[in-house]
Amino acid sequence: MDSSLESGTVQIWYTRPELIGDVELFSAYRRLLSSEERAREERFRFPKDRLIYLTTQALLRISLSRVVRRHPAEWQFVRNEFGRPELRPSRDTPPIDFNVSHTNGLTACVLAWNKPSGIDVEDLRREFDPVELADRFFSPAEANDVRRCPARKRKERFLSYWTLKESYVKARGMGLQLPLDSFSFQLPRERAATINFTDELGNRSKNWQFAQFYPTTAHVLAVCIACATGPDLSIQLRETIPLLD
Question: Which pTM was predicted?
Answer without folding.
Answer: 0.93
